[in-house]
Write a structure and sequence with these properties.
Strand order of the largest sheet: 1-2-3
Radius of gyration: 13 Å
Number of strands: 3
Strand content: 15-25%
CATH topology of one domain: Double Stranded RNA Binding Domain
CATH architecture of one domain: 2-Layer Sandwich
CATH class of one domain: Alpha Beta
Structural class: alpha+beta
Helix content: 25-40%
Length: 71
């Protein structure tokens, strides 16, 4: 069980089927989907808790920022 709150960066996208998708940047493979933003955030929090509980040592990625490139 976790006692201290931690902050994570979440990328939110909309899939072709209209579902919203979330991916937690710092936790490789931690993602979920839902129909609404509220449901997505609830499911994302649940996914994070399950991910952290399942992995005793978490290989975290350090989020540095988000950029766009034009090609």
């Amino acid at each position: 069980m976790r006692f201290m709150a931690e902050r994570f960066h979440v990328i939110v996208e909309q899939g072709r089927d209209g579902y919203l998708l979330s991916e937690v940047v710092e936790l490789p493979g931690c993602h979920t989907q839902a129909k609404t933003q509220d449901e997505l955030m609830t499911r994302t929090k649940e996914a994070i808790v399950l991910y952290l509980d399942a992995k005793k040592t978490v290989p975290r990625v350090r989020f540095l920022g988000l950029q766009q490139v034009e090609v």
